[in-house]
Design a protein that fits this description.
Length: 234
């Protein structure tokens, strides 16, 4: 089955372009195309991308960074739907997955499934505030045996046990999405949330479940800092 790999990008991610392209080209899945959507202000970065032999297109530049990203995502999905692809693999430009990530995600036969990558998050415990690395996966919050609407919590380290888990929300950094999901959902954001949260919310409202394979751990090049993803202390 044919898969499209891609993400929005801009010259902000120039620092990790080489490693990202090397990571994509090292993937072992045999039937995948790559498409990046550049929303930089000028054409310098898209020309740099093309030097690596990767297909890239431009999204019109607008001042709002969030709008640039949303416009780029939806342009990318338009291109996906125009083709004969069955899955879209959303792989953000600073996320480097294992070489066999696509095969491992496909093996679960799920419509929406994520790998694991970590990001810096603000964690509050009582009066104590700290910035830590946490997986970009969120679980349901329950009360009296029922899910609490509009509430979610970070996954804990001890929950990354290598198993398949249903999640409430996953980031868009390493997310495999079936065509049937994207035929009916557009990316969007609202004032108090990001596009990954609303994508997952909209998907769940349409009856889709979201899963994560917690055995798939990706490298995340956070703000130019190559964290050692195999020896994280959370």
């Amino acid at each position: 089955m044919k898969i499209l790999i891609g993400c929005p990008t801009s010259d902000y991610h120039a620092y990790c372009l080489k490693e990202y392209i090397e990571g994509i080209k090292a993937l072992s899945y045999p039937d995948a195309d790559i498409l990046l959507v550049d929303n930089s202000k000028d054409d310098k970065y898209i020309e740099e991308i093309k030097k690596y032999g990767v297909k890239a297109i431009k999204s019109p530049y607008v001042e709002s960074a969030r709008d640039r990203i949303i416009n780029s995502r939806n342009l990318l999905i338009d291109k996906f739907l125009e083709g004969n692809f069955l899955f879209f693999f959303s792989l953000e430009q600073d996320v480097i997955p294992p070489k066999d990530v696509i095969e491992r995600l496909l093996a679960h036969k799920k419509k929406i499934i994520s790998g694991v990558y970590f990001a810096e998050k603000n964690l509050t415990e009582g009066d104590f505030h700290k910035r830590v690395l946490l997986p970009v996966l969120y679980d349901f919050v329950e009360k009296d045996g029922r899910d609490v609407p509009d509430k979610m919590r970070f996954f804990r380290e001890d929950e990354l046990d290598g198993s398949l888990k249903e999640v409430k929300t996953a980031g868009l950094g390493c997310l495999l999405i079936h065509r049937s999901v994207l035929e009916d959902i557009k990316f969007r954001y609202e004032k108090n949330g990001f596009d990954d949260v609303f994508f997952c919310q909209d998907a769940r409202a349409k009856g889709f479940k979201i899963f994560a394979d917690t055995s798939i751990i990706c490298k995340h090049l956070i703000k130019k800092r190559p964290w050692d993803w195999k020896n994280l202390k959370i």
